[in-house]
């Protein structure tokens, strides 16, 4: 089949698949919250509604996540034109905490009233609603990995924020900013696309895309090099538990004629697996082998492979690697 026809079919299947899976990924808590008003008079009224409808801390935490993701939009204009950062002075730890609270209060109030925010507003609103419903939550700031250019970066930077919330004596990782949607480079705008995968995310997946400023999580040091040099994974990778077993790094050194060995757990031979060449044309993987609960295959490194190679499973991007010629 000509490559052009494959590309058209690929895009069509992708559109159909996205529409179908959206209905599948809404759980019972989300269905209830989806019927809530888009606006409440106060955050206290919203918290009261959540407490009326849900008993467990887990469901309350999920309801807060869902309502924010459904109703607060990412303010891309504010991201492009951030207000000037204003520092503050303090003489005691108590004064420092009071001023931080005042800052967070302004952030959640603006997000709640305007229905738009950047990550600081999302996290402040989540923390505030968690406190109103009797949950303990904290805001964590750090780095994020979102694009091909992030593979092999030399340093981390503080450019993002997320929450942790204590449920059943266990801290859970939450990124409601990413739960509400994503930026579509091809369209040059934000796309509203609810994703549940950033609620109570598996730490292995979460820290492949996030790195806290502290460099640690619950007292354990995280591997900074693994974050910077690891492959770029996507929402569907997390949703389907597609663990990337090989290559173990996001940076592959190869010469023409080499074959890049790839192993992904929980992928079946019946799944359609392909990669994009440097002209963004899909190339179907052939002769893949099922092994150890996953799929093994090879990608030939030739002049059709560009600086990056992205693997797709059933039309969804799963993992990207950076290829450096030897």
From TrEMBL:
Query: Which InterPro entries does the record match to this protein?
Result: CAP/Cytokinesis_protein (IPR052557), Papain-like_cys_pep_sf (IPR038765), Transglutaminase-like (IPR002931)
Cellular component GO terms held in the UniProt record = cytoplasm
Q: Which residues form the Transglutaminase-like domain?
A: 111-178
SMART domains recorded: TGc
What is the name attached to this protein's record?
Transglutaminase
Q: Which organism is it from?
A: Flavobacterium panici
């Amino acid at each position: 089949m000509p490559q052009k026809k494959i590309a058209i079919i690929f895009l069509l299947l992708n559109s159909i698949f996205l529409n179908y899976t959206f209905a599948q990924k809404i759980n019972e808590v989300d269905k209830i919250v989806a019927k809530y008003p888009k606006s409440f008079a106060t955050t206290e009224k919203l918290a009261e509604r959540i407490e009326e409808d849900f008993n467990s801390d887990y469901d309350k935490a999920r309801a807060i996540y869902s309502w924010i993701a459904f109703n607060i939009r990412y303010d891309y204009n504010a991201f492009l034109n951030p207000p000037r950062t204003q520092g503050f002075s303090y003489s005691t730890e108590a004064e420092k905490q009071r001023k931080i609270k005042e800052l967070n209060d302004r952030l959640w109030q603006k997000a709640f009233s305007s229905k738009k925010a950047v990550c600081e507003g999302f996290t402040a609103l989540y923390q505030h609603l968690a406190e109103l419903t009797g949950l303990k939550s904290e805001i964590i700031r750090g780095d994020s990995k979102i694009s091909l250019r992030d593979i092999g970066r030399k340093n981390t930077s503080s450019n993002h924020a997320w929450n942790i919330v204590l449920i059943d004596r266990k801290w859970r990782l939450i990124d409601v900013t990413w739960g509400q949607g994503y930026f579509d480079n091809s369209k040059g705008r934000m796309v509203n696309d609810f994703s549940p995968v950033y609620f109570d995310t598996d730490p292995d997946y979460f820290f492949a895309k996030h790195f806290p400023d502290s460099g640690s999580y619950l007292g354990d040091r995280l591997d900074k090099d693994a974050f910077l040099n690891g492959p770029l994974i996507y929402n569907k990778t997390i949703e389907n538990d597609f663990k990337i077993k090989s290559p173990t790094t996001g940076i592959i050194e190869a010469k023409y004629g080499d074959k890049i060995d790839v192993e992904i757990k929980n992928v079946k031979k019946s799944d359609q697996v392909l990669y994009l060449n440097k002209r963004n044309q899909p190339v179907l993987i052939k002769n893949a082998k099922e092994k150890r609960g996953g799929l093994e295959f090879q990608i030939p490194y030739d002049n059709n492979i560009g600086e990056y190679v992205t693997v797709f499973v059933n039309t969804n991007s799963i993992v990207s690697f950076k290829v450096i010629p030897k």
